[in-house]
Prior knowledge:
Layout: H1 7-24, H2 28-34, H3 39-47, H4 66-77, H5 81-101, H6 104-116, E1 120-124, E2 140-144, E3 147-158, E4 165-176, E5 182-190, E6 196-201, E7 212-223, E8 227-228, H7 234-268, E9 272-273, E10 276-277, H8 282-310, H9 316-341, H10 351-359, H11 369-379
Amino acid sequence: MTHGLSADHEDLRATVEKFAHDEVAPVIGGFYERGEFPYGIVAKMGRMGLFGLPFPEEEGGMGGDYFALCLALEELARVDSSVAITLEAGVSLGAMPLHRFGSAEQKARWLPRLCSGEALGAFGLTEPGAGSDAGATSTTARLDDGEWVINGTKSFITNSGTDITALVTVTAVTGERPDGRPEISTIIVPSGTPGFSIGQKYSKVGWNASDTNELVFEDCRVPEANLLGERGRGYAQFLRTLDEGRIAIAALAVGLAQGCVDESVRYAGERAAFGRHIGHYQSIQFTIADMEVRAHTARLAYYDAASRMLAGEPFKRQAAIAKLVASNAAMDNARAATQVFGGYGFMNEYPVGRFYRDAKILEIGEGTSEIQRMLIARDLGLPA
């Protein structure tokens, strides 16, 4: 066991930290206020190889690992979560299903562009009536003359409506199992396919510089070969995808939690009240100390989950623990940082105002906190 990072991981962490502070921090507030997707920043992230971090070189990636992605997400989220979630969703939800389950032809067609950041992929799972209950999927796909005909609506889909979105992988009911349960499969739908349209752009509480849309499929036809993996394995595929994605979301949440510490330490050394910098007061010191404890503990949780995943060990429970602990830390630290800043913490011109708005979704996206508790309980052997 070691408390330190490898030389390669530390170099990556430092590089992304510098990029976040030099390139993202000075401009992201404007994108956030305008609700504008930061294409220039995303392009720079692509040139840095961030979208290809966990993929092998033969697929167009950087030959790194999933932990490298998590380190990058943490450093980005210390400055801004919109940019971090664009990377997380592009890799964990957009490209990773193709890497895990795609055919050789599918990988060759899509992964080089996704790994370079030239294009983004999205994962169409959630529906208006099927969020945590993904088994209630109502989107359908039927075979007709060698093509899948898809009908349905998907909700809250990240990276689905940008000018560089290349595809969405969609879960759909493709039949019925012998026990009467729906057969769910995943199908690749390229952007621009007739019958596939981008619905409303959401007005969100946070993540305002990221792309989130509703998707509509009306007799959308794609080749039968666009089936991703085995027919009827879509449910299992999305479970694997979300297990890994929870570690990445935990890393993002740790970044937000640590960013709250960073900003509070800086502000406590600048802001004076009653004749002294507020950092001299024990109440502020204890508040920031508790924030650091939460960020540090959550970091250990996602490090542990990531190490188990990379070692090929079971990690479902540890991923759920990491996601639960880290999202709690992000929410608690955002609230505490806003209190340290006082009235200025309520202003969007200060990062903690954005952190406060961005933190809540971390308790919801890629599995709510209640779902994480359920997964932990079941893994402990408690009744399903």
